[in-house]
Structures are given as C-alpha cells and as structure tokens.
Write a structure and sequence with these properties.
Structural class: mainly alpha
Helix content: 40-55%
Number of strands: 9
Strand content: 5-15%
Largest sheet: 3 strands, antiparallel
Number of helices: 17
Low-confidence stretches: none
Radius of gyration: 20 Å
Strand order of the largest sheet: 5-9-6
Length: 323
C-alpha cells in the first residue's frame, strides 16, 4: 500500500500495517472528528482520528522508529469514542482519558489480535507495554509523535502553519536516547508558539468550548433517557447524531438544535454562561546542542514567557457568553 499524507508525503508501508488500516476499528476512525464537537459549529474544523492515527504512524516511520512502534502508533487512538474527548465531559472525567481506560477491551473485541497474530505479533505485548514506545507517547512537556502530529495537522488544516514551516520543523527533529529532540532554538520557539495556538487558541476557542458544553449536555441527557447507551459511543459521530435526531424527544432535540454554524459567542468574565477549564497541556521541547540535552526554556526567554502565560490561561479557564 502507498500512503500519501499532506504533512509527511508518500510512503510505502508493510503488509501488517495495510491490513490494520483496512480493519473495521481503524476505518471507524474516519467517522470520528478529532475536534470532538467542533465540526458541528464550524464545518472547517474537520480533521479525523483516522488522519491523525495514520499521521502518527508515518511520523514514527520518518524518524526511524521500528515497525512495532509504527503499529502501536497507528492503533493508539483506535478506542476513541464518537466525538473524541466529549465523552470525558459527559462522564465528568477530568483526566480526559476515557479512551485509554477502554483501549484493551476495544482491541480484544476486534479483529486486530487476529491480524497481529498472523504476522507473529502478540497484541498484548505490543499494545500493553506503552512505556516501551518512547517516540509515540511522552508525558508533557516532551515532544512525541502523538503531540507533534495533532498540532501540525490541525494547525496546517486550520491555516495557522504553512507546509514550509512544518517541513523545516520536521527536518530539525533528531532522536537521541530514544526521545524526539530538536537542534534549533528558533524552531523550538516556533513549535511552542504553534502548540499553544492548538491547545489554547483552538481547544479553548469560546466557540469550541460552547460546542463541547452543549453536545455534552445533549449526550448526557440522551444517556439518562436511555435514547443512547455507553456502548453506542463506539459508533461513528453521525450515527450517534442520527439516533438522537430520530428519538422524538423534544428536550434532547432542542439541545441538539443549539449546535449549528450560526452560533455567536464571546468572552465575558462577569456575565458568562459557561466557565470551562481544560486539562493543562504545557510544552518545553528538549534540544540536543553541543552534546548536551537542554530544555528550550533554559535557552529562550520567549519560551519561558509562553509557558507562564499558557499555565495562567489553563488555570483561569474560559468564560463564555452566548450572544
């Protein structure tokens, strides 16, 4: 199979990756929007979990990661429910990790173990030992394939980063002691700025906050009224929407109708309708310079200032006024 990606270019991939990509759990991710509820209020916010998952796999391949880590990267989001992280707001899950809690259960009930066994891989060994895969996942504030891909992908699609800038950044990445590092402080500063455009300006955009809040209300009420079940969240976004639309429940349908592209919202700390705090997401990339590993914040006043400002915004949250 030849994979062509607008961020990383064209790659030929191995047979096991091809079978996994064509599997039902992976194909379902084409119907799961990465931005959760955001596409319901802005049709341009439409990146899918499938695009991101394939992108993570390709990034790991590009920086020299093993086939096993590419497999882990491809499958890392396969348990994301309809509307991605909206489920965490429905269930009041502050860690925003519901998809991780159900990950192995989703894998076991799918054809993925059979596909992996065909190629002599033990799915539990490959997918349970997440600490083994240093390129795929790292705790904040490190760089990792997951964090890098969703930032670059969203910010490119949503017009905040050019392909030229992205390629310069990707070309600067090296792997040292198993971790992604940069070599240029200028590109570290660029990524920190771009990352905060993602997790602050996009994730915490008042319109996005509104969409998450209203959809979470809708889904929570639908669960309470038994219009949907928790198992239904393993369907695609549009399937859950259709089930709610045809429920004939006026209260639920009234909430759903409040999600549309003509919504107008603003920020007002005194007279607000919604106050939401998101999970704190900070970034401080490692740089490999002169045979030493250093944090970007050790070398750049701009990075230090951006991190302080970001932390303050995460602690304050967003006060949304519905106009």
């Amino acid at each position: 199979m030849i994979i062509s990606d607008y961020i990383y270019g064209e790659f030929e991939i191995d047979d096991v990756l091809e079978e996994l990509i064509l599997s039902k759990p992976m194909q379902r991710l084409k119907g799961i929007h990465q931005g959760g509820a955001s596409y319901l209020v802005n049709s341009k916010w439409n990146v899918t979990r499938f695009e991101h998952s394939v992108g993570v796999m390709l990034l790991i391949k590009q920086v020299g990661g093993s086939l096993e880590e590419q497999i882990a990267g491809l499958l890392h989001d396969v348990s994301h429910t309809a509307f991605s992280h909206v489920i965490d707001f429905v269930l009041d899950n502050k860690a925003e990790d519901y998809h991780e809690e159900i990950f192995m259960d989703v894998i076991r009930k799918s054809e993925i173990p059979i596909i992996l066994k065909k190629y002599d891989y033990n799915y539990e060994h490959l997918l349970l030992n997440t600490a083994t895969w240093n390129l795929l996942e790292q705790p904040a504030p490190e760089l990792c394939a997951d964090r890098v891909d969703y930032t670059l992908r969203d910010m490119y699609v949503y017009g905040q980063a050019s392909l030229e800038e992205i390629q310069k950044f990707l070309n600067d990445i090296i792997v040292y002691q198993g971790k992604m590092c940069l070599q240029s402080i200028e590109l570290a500063e660029w990524f920190v700025k771009t990352y905060y455009q993602e997790v602050l300006d996009f994730f915490m955009d008042p319109l996005n906050i509104y969409a998450y809040y209203k959809l979470a209300q809708t889904l929570k009420l639908s669960l309470e009224k038994k219009i949907i079940t928790l198992a239904d969240f393993l369907k695609e976004d549009h399937e859950l929407i259709e089930r709610i639309k045809y429920s004939n429940d006026r209260q639920v349908q009234s909430l759903l109708k409040q999600l549309h592209s003509d919504v107008k919202v603003g920020v007002d700390q005194k007279e607000f309708d919604i106050h939401q705090k998101n999970k704190t997401r900070l970034i401080d990339p490692l740089l490999y310079l002169h045979n030493r590993l250093l944090r970007a914040s050790e070398l750049s006043e701009d990075v230090r200032k951006m991190n302080v400002a970001a932390n303050e915004k995460f602690q304050q949250g967003v006060f949304v006024k519905i106009l």
